[in-house]
Amino acid sequence: MKKNADIAIEVKDLTVYYQKVGALSNVNLRVKEKDFLGIIGPNGGGKSTLLKAILGLVAPHSGTVQVFGKPPRKALGLMGYVPQFTKFHRDFPINVEETILMGRLSGKTPIFHRYSEKDREIVHSLMNKLELYPLRDRQIGQLSGGQLQRTLIARALTVEPKILLLDEPTASLDTESKSHIYSILKELNKNMTIIMVTHDMGAISSHVRSLACLNKKLYYHGHSELSQELITHLYGCPVDLIAHGVPHRVLKEHNNIGGDSHV
Amino acid sequence: MFKSIMEYQFLQNAIISAILASIACGIIGSIIIEKRLVMMSGGIAHTAFGGIGLGYFLGIEPIIGALFITVCAAMGIATIKRKTQTSTDIPIGIFWAAGMSLGIIFIALTPGYPPDMNTYLFGDILTVSRNNLYIIMLLDAVVVFAVAALFHPLKGYLFDEEFSTVIGIKTTFIEYLLFILIALTIVVIIHVIGIILIMALLTAPPAIAKLFTHDLKKLMLYSTLLNIFFTLVGLWISYTLNIPSGAAIALFISLVYAIVSIIKNLMQRKILHNAPGK
Ligand SMILES: Nc1ncnc2c1ncn2[C@@H]1O[C@H](COP(=O)(O)OP(=O)(O)OP(=O)(O)O)[C@@H](O)[C@H]1O
Ligand SMILES: [Mg+2]
Asked: What's the number of CA atoms in the CB half-sphere (13 Å) around residue A140?
């Protein structure tokens, strides 16, 4: 066995440019298998770009990305993805159920393919969990923002990937849907690596195992509990983590270090 | 007319080719409008004229020349689409003009009396020969087989290319294949409606069918049925009034499309009016 057998993603000196705009500069990141990594950072900090680089959807200017030791284009099919913004046309003739079923396709789908009973069962149970079942026959353009987002999350989950990448998956969801999704993710995390971009600090404190803070450069990567080390690091990363509601678990930590010179 | 159908082979050929063209057109037309490929298909269609000219110039069946050139153009346009992030309108427009010009030049270079190009430009379904019919049948079979065989991945690609790529569907392959199928379809329908009028048959029927279904398979089926109706009625009009078939079909389609659009508009207004709280 190779010595890095438990590394899911390895990003080395990654720099990404869009035409002339630099989006990422010299990012190094290593994600262990079965980690639950939260990525935070300001708008335009390059969070979505990092996910796309891992997925092989944008090409690095320099540096490398490896997914289970392979370049992203060779690791297609191992990853599921919930994009921040969708590019499809909302008037496309497809309904909720068929959209989610799409996640069952892969590079190995045979010709004259039909969805199996198992495919349909997986999709039905997810639709039930995400309360999409009553909407299953709806054309995709006739959903609300949150319903569409739940559909796309369900679609990514049906891939049963080894790595799941979610770009602000709960941005337009109500509290109940959010907690449903976090509990599903928690369950999945037992045998799946999850990377989630989010501005939801509540989720960071209670669901995420490790944290990365991205603002063109990677400012911090490590434990998600807000220790003194983290605070020190986050000063370099202009994020509203401390200004906005500080999560309770974090507060405790905060009290512990209250006597220190930093506060 | 029905007695004539039994008597004249050219009428039988016309009807069979109308039905075959309707099938390819219903399937590919639905794809073209959903994937927003109308302009690109128009570009490919117009390069067919260059191919027809090449056919005459080389002394081979013009349809074979068209097949060769449209497939090349389709590959070229698919590559341009892959490589350019911004709008592809400009390269497509240039393809469009270059294809037509090539046709004119080949015809000019061909020795002897210049052939009548109107058949290809505006379609003349009554001139479909047995040989043409065999070519059309073969191309039609390829289109139907390919779409049926790859239906789910193809639908994934049409709906959400990014996600399809991520889960491992071979989107590049599917895209090139799709462009080749568009080229084949164009060759199939040149005789029926002509290069210049092709877009009417490719876009209007699926646009009408879309009012009645949210299912891609049904959209293809309804478009095909509409196409059969349009081409056969157009053929009948053309035969009885003795006017060119391509123009008869295209005009009939446009008329129906206009009426359907007006009705749709009126109905939407009515719904708005009757909405509670209004
Ligand atoms: N397609 C694009 N073309 C040009 N520039 C882009 C493109 N996508 C992103 N950028 C630029 O790259 C930088 C990083 O963008 P990115 O979308 O990765 O940020 P983000 O961290 O996801 O932000 P947000 O919180 O707003 O989603 C920004 O400066 C943005 O302007
Ligand atoms: Mg983003």
From this structure: 24
